Amino acid sequence: MFSARFPWDLRPNRLTQLLAGKSRRSARILDLTESNPTHAGFTYPPQILRAFDNAEALRYQPAPAGALPAREAVAAYYNARGSRVEAAHILLTASTSEAYAYLFKLLTNPGDQVLVPRPSYPLFDYLANMESVEVRQYPLVYDGGWAIDAEGLASAVTGRTRAVVLVDPNNPTGSYVKRAELDAVVRLCRERNLALLSDEVFSDYAFAPDAARAGTLAEVTGCLTFAMSGLSKIAGLPQMKLGWIAVNGPADLRREALEKLEWIADTYLSVSTPVQCAAPALLAAGEEVQRQIRARCGANLKLARQALAGSPANVLAVEGGWYIILQVPRVRSEEEWSLDLLEREDVLVQPGFFYDFESEAYLVVSLLTAPAIFAEGIGRLRRQVADA
After folding, report:
1. Which end of the chain has fewer CB atoms at under 10 Å, N or C?
2. pLDDT tens digits, residue range 118-174?
3. Domains delineated in the chain
């Protein structure tokens, strides 16, 4: 009766089942997986609410690409960071997830393929399957830092490949795309007639500057390119449901892509008028939330490195984002590590296989976690690892 777009086992995994049991017993869980900034104890400026006191929000004037003032505010966001992006090349969506759905509709037919990094965020499989698209993975490799395996990427391309996805910085590795890597990827896309999709939602959360980084792909012209971001991460406002796609590349392809994206967007008209009216103020007010998040993540990263120094757990190199990866001894599986930490220490972490790590044993921890919970949780984790 139901669509083949649901190939997954929908039963809760062992970690979810154990967590549910702990919750029923009212156990105090030290959650080191927090990903929702609105649950993380940040102070939101009052002007965020005032931004919705706008009579224009009561008028429905549908614009498939999004209201021009909102798109101009997004363009100003890029321009303030040194990148020239035109409002005419921006299309608004309700989220980055919706942006992916639009782009898969634009670029693929059922059975076509898109290439995504491994390890990376597990949402790609779900988004692609919903569009009847196949995901193929290309490897990121670690040698004191993460890098794209250029040969692995090239070998992953088939006759059905339509796009390459970059996540910049990657989630959860926190690694940025470097200029030399980008040159190679753009060259591959141009030669193989592929589109390039860049997910840049964590781009503002670098721990230190690095001149070797490529920066936003919204300025790339060597191949058809789509740079995605939104309020969810860059302003800590996931509930506002505003994302965007910045389109670039050869002028004829860019023009046709924008025209077709408007047709897709016109079918749904999903972005609400109030959030579009509020967008300029939300982007401005979100800067304060972003500063708090950067400070929190930087402090928790420093604490983790200090607390785990000299222990069997190793914090892998990270350049930015909200997460860190801990390499732990392979005396047990990642699943066993995660289950033992939750069962014995009431500490919740994510196993690396959630993100398709190719080898064991890695744990993923969120730097967004409230400091007191983070410190106690990391302390218990160190104790558990030392006793293994």
Report:
1. N
2. 999 989 999 999 999 999 999 999 999 999 999 999 999 999 999 999 999 999 999
3. 14-43+289-387 (3.90.1150.10), 47-285 (3.40.640.10)
